[in-house]
């Protein structure tokens, strides 16, 4: 899929021959995110579908209490500190961004009057400035008006390193200027193709200046609003016990008409995912439960009681296996897995190819994850003409045997293939987690048939993901031949996500293994493409670059995707809750209602 | 007496100090990082995580961190939680009342069951009543609470739909409705904890009453012509309860520990579920504080048991 083919497709969308939605699905299949595909269309002049979620109630209130069950409850309500989604979700009940992402990757205005666009003159052609017009007549829950000063303040708050915000990397290089009381302009230091990050979605919730102003920087921990937010959202804060219960009541001056439908909201935390699913699907004690990391078989059984349904939204999380490109067993310059070394077996492309053939993705989906892990066969689902060689997957033990045989890896007396003094015996590590151990077993089985012996190793999640640089078993150190985990893509733009295979991101001893290129894979072409993509303003060219990067990466065989991990959640039958994989579950909370 | 208490309290100080050193070292050596989620999130630059670690002093050597913790603890500052960034004592105070109510209620239930059943079983040993009660009690204390808890949920919540299985500390109803809702949701956890305790206590009460009921002074009381009721209530039970009371006091801390699991199952926002959450999130200050509170309780109830013993049996004196 190159730039030309992309342009052709966009033309088809423009002419109305190709539905917008299927274009976006095809792009997602190629490894792009829906929001990116949507931005591509926007820039090409295809009008964005501004579909507000369907909403039937004709008046505010009257819906009783909306009961949400979060098996891990939020522990604070400052969206700028959120380390995980639970705090973002808790904050999103009260705080709102300027715009949010819907399931198809459309930007929908929330606190903004409209989405910036080149046509309206609010988006500069060179990608260095974006003008946000703010909605008028929005008030904070304490009655103060919402203005441009509030937006400006959020930028100042986050970029101050002493505030220790997790969003600092998004806000630290931009400049925000107030134009008038309801207009702000955001300047980027260099052309920024993907501008909808600051003030948008999960990373854009706006906190009030008039309350937070005295608590900027190191004093931010003392702000009482960290526990008792005052926002612009559909529900007003009532009370909060960290990790346990969060409650709110309908805000009668909410800026969207007839919303919210519910009179009150509560978010209960604690417990485990299975019983959370049970409380919604089986007893109906709660209306909605989030992030149900439960085996699909159990979910199906619970669904069978007919009280609720499971909704699955796809985002960018992917479970994958990485092959070590360096030698994890011998020290080079006093360092195991040094970037200067090469893996004795994996440096042979035939071995990597064989490994790719021996991962039964379809089996993993069918027997382990079900609906909650879709084999990356969605690379295959695309129409024939987009199917590049690099993104084709198959499971074929015979072919793997042939490939290895042809490359000179001969079976020894013990049935394990070897060439010279290198044997195909690998250590395959992952974190302790039932589906992962099952996946390991499936791969081990197939490898045994091809004369490759795998030693399975599972490390407790606390150690594996712990980031303790004194521990040899962390995933960052990767002192094993292969490892498997899920990498999350929390932002819709793939730039930072794809950076994890750039050579300047190598996780090594001198950076305490804190950098992100863990497989230590290095490729000049990939690096060049990534550098170019950072300042490529043409959305289509840029998309073509990411598709290419993805192909280069997959073709080299060090990275073996296994399954996409969509987010499952449960809701009772009558609840209408628009969800999106590109934003928080609470992104469309004002539009939630119950069918009568 | 006063002297004795003072000495015991002074003796408790070094043990608390020792406990804190051990806890702190174990926690420092244990793997894990409160900012784990940041490490796996590719969009958060590693510098943010390293800065946060440095800001919270996680990169200092263990003994420096312990020194900080101890000196602020002595000033009454329990520190603040790494994940929620609010003060630990506030967090504990939010959670403590629920735990006390649930544990208190379950202990009362345990006593209400264990005392009469144990006494009746001992008065007529090897009768049908005794046999049934003993069998049930064996079953009761051999089933762990996490198992009975799940059984209760499956049966009473899912099959019969009688009780909710998600506990809510703040119920918006008022008046009788408020009481009713609270009782309804507390029945299962209180029963799980209480019946487990009652099962083992019943055995203690039974054997202790059996010991006393054979003594000569009981025969004397009977031959004086006192009614059986008076003999049992006034003469037997009173003496038989001395060891039981000490036992109950000594078991209190263990009960707090046992409640952790039950709290997790029923989502009771008590101090136990706070501890579990803190462990899962590697929130050292909270783990430290809660375990410290637990060890404080152990020492306190040990002292109470010793004092009670002397009060019940004047032959024991304190020097």
Concise synopsis of the structure shown:
The complex is a heterodimer of chains A (596) and B (319). Chain A is an alpha+beta fold and 596 residues long. In chain A, 27% of the residues lie in helices and 18% in strands.
| Cα shape of chain A | globular
The level of helicity of chain B is over 70%
Could you give the count of β-strands of chain A? 25
Give, in spatial order, the strands making up the sheet with the most strands of chain A: 7-8-9-1-10-23-11
Q: Strand pairing plus helix content of chain A: what structural class? A: alpha+beta
CA(first)-CA(last) distance of chain B: 8 Å
- End-to-end distance of chain A, in Å? 48 Å
**What is the residue-averaged pLDDT of chain B?**
83
Number of helices of chain B: 12
Show unreliable segments of chain A: 377-390
Rg of chain B, alpha carbons = 24 Å
Q: What is the helix fraction of residues of chain A, given as a range?
A: 25-40%
Low-confidence stretches of chain B: none
| Largest interface, C-beta closer than 8 angstroms, per-chain residues | A-B, 59 and 51 residues
- The structural class of chain B is mainly alpha
Protein architecture, described:
The complex is a heterodimer of chains A (596) and B (319). By secondary structure, chain A is of the alpha+beta class. Chain A starts with a helix and ends with a strand. The model of chain A is unreliable at 377-390 (pLDDT under 50). Helices cover 77% and strands 0% of the residues of chain B. Chain B is built from 12 helices and no strands. In chain B, helix 7 (145-159) packs across helix 8 and helix 7 crosses helix 10 (228-266). Chain B is globular, with a radius of gyration of 24 Å. Chains A and B meet through strand 9 and helix 8 of A and helix 2, helix 3, helix 5, helix 7 and helix 11 of B.
């Amino acid at each position: 899929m190159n730039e030309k083919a992309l342009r052709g497709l966009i033309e088809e969308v423009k002419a109305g021959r190709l539905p917008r939605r299927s274009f976006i699905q095809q792009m997602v299949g190629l490894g792009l995110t829906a929001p990116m595909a949507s931005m591509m269309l926007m820039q090409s002049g295809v009008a964005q579908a501004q579909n507000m979620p369907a909403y039937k109630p004709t008046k505010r209130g009257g819906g009783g209490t909306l009961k949400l069950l979060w098996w891990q409850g939020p522990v604070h309500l400052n969206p700028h500190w959120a380390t995980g989604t639970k705090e973002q979700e808790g904050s999103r009940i009260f705080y709102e961004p300027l715009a949010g992402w819907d399931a198809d990757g459309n930007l929908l205005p929330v606190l903004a009057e409209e989405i910036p666009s080149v046509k309206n003159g609010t988006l500069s052609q060179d990608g260095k400035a974006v003008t946000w017009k703010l909605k008028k007549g929005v008030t904070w829950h304490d009655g103060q008006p919402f203005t441009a000063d509030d937006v400006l303040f959020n930028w100042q708050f986050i970029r101050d390193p002493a505030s220790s915000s997790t969003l600092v990397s998004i806000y630290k290089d931009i400049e925000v200027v107030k134009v008038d009381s309801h207009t702000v302009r955001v300047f980027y230091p260099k052309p920024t193709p993907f501008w909808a990050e600051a003030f948008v979605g999960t990373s854009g919730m706006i906190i009030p200046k008039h309350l937070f102003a005295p608590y900027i920087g190191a004093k931010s921990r003392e702000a009482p609003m960290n526990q008792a937010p005052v926002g612009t959202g559909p529900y007003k804060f009532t009370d909060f016990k960290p990790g346990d219960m969060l409650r709110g009541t309908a805000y009668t001056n909410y800026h969207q008409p007839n919303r919210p439908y519910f009179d009150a909201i509560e978010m209960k935390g604690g417990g485990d995912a299975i019983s959370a699913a049970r409380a919604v699907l089986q007893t109906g004690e709660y209306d909605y439960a989030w992030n149900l990391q439960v085996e699909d078989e159990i979910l199906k059984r619970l669904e069978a009681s007919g009280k609720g349904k499971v909704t699955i939204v796809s985002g960018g999380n992917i479970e994958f296996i990485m092959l070590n490109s360096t030698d994890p067993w011998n020290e080079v310059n006093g360092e195991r897995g040094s970037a200067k070394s090469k893996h004795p077996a994996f440096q042979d492309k035939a071995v990597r190819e064989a490994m790719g053939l021996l991962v039964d993705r379809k089996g993993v989906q069918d027997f382990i994850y079900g609906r909650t892990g879709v084999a990356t066969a969605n690379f295959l689902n695309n129409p024939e003409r987009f199917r590049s060689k690099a993104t084709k997957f198959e499971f074929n033990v015979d072919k793997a045997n042939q490939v290895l045989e042809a490359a000179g890896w001969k079976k020894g007396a013990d049935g394990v293939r070897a060439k010279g003094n290198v044997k195909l015996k690998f250590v395959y590590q992952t974190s302790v987690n039932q589906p992962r151990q099952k996946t390991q077993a499936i791969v081990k089985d197939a490898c045994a048939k091809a004369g490759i012996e795998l030693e399975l190793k599972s490390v407790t999640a606390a150690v594996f993901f712990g980031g303790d640089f004194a521990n040899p078993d962390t995933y960052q150190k990767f002192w094993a031949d292969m490892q498997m985990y899920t990498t999350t893509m929390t932002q819709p733009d793939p730039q930072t996500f794809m950076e994890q295979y750039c050579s300047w991101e190598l996780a090594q001893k001198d950076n305490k293994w804190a950098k992100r290129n863990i497989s230590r894979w290095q490729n000049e072409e990939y690096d060049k493409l990534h550098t170019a993509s950072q300042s490529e303003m043409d959305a289509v060219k840029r998309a073509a670059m990411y598709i290419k990067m993805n192909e280069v990466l997959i073709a080299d065989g060090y990275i073996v995707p296994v399954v996409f991990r969509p987010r499952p959640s449960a809701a009772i039958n009558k609840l209408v809750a628009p969800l999106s994989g590109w934003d928080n579950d609470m992104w469309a909370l004002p539009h939630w209602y119950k069918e009568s | 007496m006063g002297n004795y208490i003072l000495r015991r309290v002074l003796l408790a100080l070094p043990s608390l100090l020792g406990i804190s050193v051990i806890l702190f070292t174990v926690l420092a050596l244990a793997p894990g990082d409160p900012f784990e989620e940041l490490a796996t999130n590719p969009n958060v630059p590693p510098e943010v995580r390293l800065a946060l670690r440095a800001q919270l002093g996680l990169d200092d050597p263990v003994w420096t961190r312990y020194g900080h913790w101890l000196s602020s603890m002595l000033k009454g500052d329990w520190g603040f939680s790494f994940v929620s960034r609010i003060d630990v004592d506030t967090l504990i105070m939010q959670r403590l009342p629920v735990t006390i109510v649930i544990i208190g209620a379950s202990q009362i239930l345990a006593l209400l069951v264990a005392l009469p059943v144990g006494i009746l079983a001992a008065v007529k040993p090897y009768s049908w009543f005794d046999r049934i009660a003993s069998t049930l009690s064996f079953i009761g204390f051999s089933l762990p609470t996490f198992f009975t808890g799940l059984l209760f949920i499956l049966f009473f919540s899912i099959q019969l739909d009688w009780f909710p299985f998600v506990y809510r500390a703040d119920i918006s109803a008022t008046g009788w409705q408020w009481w009713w809702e609270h009782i309804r949701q507390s029945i299962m956890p209180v029963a799980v904890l209480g019946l487990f305790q009652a099962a083992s206590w019943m055995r203690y009460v039974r054997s202790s009453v059996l010991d006393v009921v054979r003594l000569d002074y009981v025969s004397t009381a009977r031959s004086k012509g006192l009614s059986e009721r008076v003999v049992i209530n006034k003469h037997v039970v009173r003496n038989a309860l001395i060891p039981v009371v000490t036992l109950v006091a000594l078991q209190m801390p263990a009960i707090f520990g046992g409640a952790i699991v039950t709290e997790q199952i029923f989502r009771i926002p008590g101090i136990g579920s706070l501890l579990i959450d803190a462990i899962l999130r590697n929130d050292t200050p909270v783990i430290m504080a809660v375990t410290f509170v637990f060890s404080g309780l152990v020492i306190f109830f040990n002292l109470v048991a010793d004092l009670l013993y002397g009060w019940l049996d004047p032959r024991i004196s304190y020097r």
